[in-house]
């Protein structure tokens, strides 16, 4: 009699929802929470949002228990095969008013804390540190305002892992070459914008998700009390490699942060020096390959063949095997026709530009044999402003 | 006087008969459902495990985009229009639609629109790859060349919808049999009347937004291009001003179908008919003032954020009223669970779950964590698959004997139901978990902690796909079956359609019926 099957839908529904109820229970156990539920996060805002989330979730469970309870009861108790006779009632103003009012009251109970959280989240005043975050297809640029420090942050998962030729590491797709670093206990304000399409900068543990929109500057903020490494991803579809532009934030105690800051500045000064160095042909090509893989391969592909119809091939390209000035022009100032080919003059150092251009002219069978030095890049930039 | 259909292919090409056109719409929708479903399976196959195995990211993006566009504009909307064509004239005692020639035209432009849309897949640079929401500037400055064809296809679909909506309004307002007052109309007619007004209000907005894109791409304007003084966020406002009512366009007729089926199998009149009508109307009105809840993270000012949060939460009230009314209709009835009722009951339960996650999404601060994750994907699939798709399926099983004159195979119907029910929950329930755990939507590859649930989702999706093959088989078998259906088909169902013989004659109610 109690079999579950096509002839006994109420029972089978029952079993199914028992399953859901069990998973709901797991859902509230901390042990499972990281893979089943929203993270509580590490900031006061993220904890507030988590409690809003759990609140509304339990309200839904409560309403569900009542509604589905009545439904299952009637599906079991009022079956024709068991001789149930249908009543004929079909109207009750009292009931209609009642079940309009009760949800309304619950909604007000939810709206009050949600409003106060929202007001708090929107208060971006009085920040200790300002960081300008710019979305690019498909990387992030971080600029410490007032500190004269900026850098790009690229996915660092190797292609071999993505294409299943190597075992995937635990931080697969959630790792970058240069993470954003911020100090503990300081109010950090993020100013977000984009260089091309809309991206969205999201760290679940901070409960910060804000769109990076070209032509706009959006604001968000966070205060993180304990050090740690936090990972997130771009949350707005931004083209081909939308799934491959993660975000990593390293939170350091203030003294370590300051130390990191000065180290970075020293590194930047070293790189600056390279811009006035003269490289050998081999050095340019070796350096260029790395620059190419980090900055160009997303579109032009590691083999230089591009993606037909979207991104041109560099192998045999008219420009990469033509006049050097045209090549410099498109890489430094970007394409007039297609903005996906960005102005890399503003993104890469002269040394890197010289290297990548030399590499493109001498790789993938483009045996041009010529090269370009950082100083020439600088001169080209100045002459063609 | 009365004559049958023309012979051969001409019957279908030149028909102005509402039943023929309804049938055309339904078959068209069914075929689009399989194409859109196939795209979904490509997506789920790629997401079966971490890493890139089957398709490259650029093709993956074309699949997510076309899956959404085809399901929304090709499967769900035409199916509802098909049901409207078949049932509305019969339900109000009219001989046909008010504008039969336009009816033919509004159907026959659709196959061209979708042929154009699908052909973009074979163009240089590929098909549309910017998501079914096609946010600028990804869909303008950064779009593949085929975007122009996409815009053209959207224009044709919009024209078709507007013509269909005008026809439905004209029919309902002018062609009711004497005595069929507005408040006597079946709820399916009511919900469609309101839906048709929504369509007329928002399809032009969709046309406007794609035209602005066209201007930006080809005629040097900068509506959405910040570099030219334009505003990418403007795109989202205009799109969602269309897009939010659009999601109600895909669910209001479903409410009507369910409100027809539950009373039949509970053997009890619909509870709270009048409040159902008012609730539908309030949902439709509210749908115009909630659009920015899709944009909580774009950085609208605090007051705007609060307004859209409150307005969105309000929608839960009339929606709740509907669910309570359905449950109360079942209460103390004399219930049986034939296939249409199974789908209808599953609709009420699963749509309510989708409503719950909708309520959660309305809480703006919490939405900062949910937005653009799989939690949203779970939410809208719970309202669209067991919502729109299940209601359409329920409607097809419910009226199929009336259309064909044959009874479908009940065992096969129930098999279809259970496979679909299990498949759909396996596919979409785990998406709540991966979404909350932080998996963004529209990504072809994902971090390792999302692997288990994605594998379950993918298995569920293939099961759901298999269920639809059973459906197709059952429908075809019914058409050619020998088992005769009675005029009433079910036990004392209410509605004019059950006063007609099965199959319904080619011309019905050439003399208006008497309404009690
Ligand atoms: Cu992005």
Detailed description of the structure:
The complex is a heterodimer of chains A (385) and B (516). Chain A folds into three domains: 9-81 and 91-121, no CATH class; 129-273, Immunoglobulin-like (Sandwich); 275-383, Cytochrome Bc1 Complex, Chain D, domain 2 (Orthogonal Bundle). The longest helix of chain A is centred in the N-terminal third of the chain and has 34 residues, at 44-77. In chain A, helix 3 runs antiparallel to helix 4 and helix 7 (281-295) crosses helix 10. Chain A is an alpha+beta fold and 385 residues long. Chain A is elongated and about 90 Å long. The relative contact order of chain A is 0.09. Chain A has eleven helices and ten strands. With 516 residues, chain B is mostly helical. Chain B has 17 helices and no strands. Chain B has helices at residues 9-14, 18-46, 57-91, 100-108, 110-119, 147-174, 187-218, 232-249, 252-266, 273-286, 302-314, 316-330, 339-362, 364-370, 374-404, 410-436, 451-480. Chain B has a single domain (22-499), classed as Cytochrome C Oxidase, Chain A (Up-down Bundle). The model of chain B has no long low-confidence stretch (mean pLDDT 95). At the A-B interface, helix 1, helix 2, helix 3, helix 4 and strand 7 of A face helix 3, helix 10, helix 11, helix 12 and helix 13 of B. Bound molecules: copper (II) ion. Copper (II) ion is lined by residues 135, 138, 199, 234, 238, 242, 245 of chain A.
Q: What level of helicity do the residues of chain A show?
A: 40-55%
Overall average residue pLDDT of chain A? 88
As residue ranges, the low-confidence spans of chain A are 1-10, 24-33
Overall average pLDDT of chain B: 95
Beta-strand portion of chain B reads under 5%
Number of distinct beta strands of chain A: 10
Shape of chain A: elongated
Count of β-strands of chain B:
0
Outline of chain B = globular
Structural class of chain B: mainly alpha
CATH H-level superfamily of chain B: Cytochrome c oxidase-like, subunit I domain
Structural class of chain A: alpha+beta
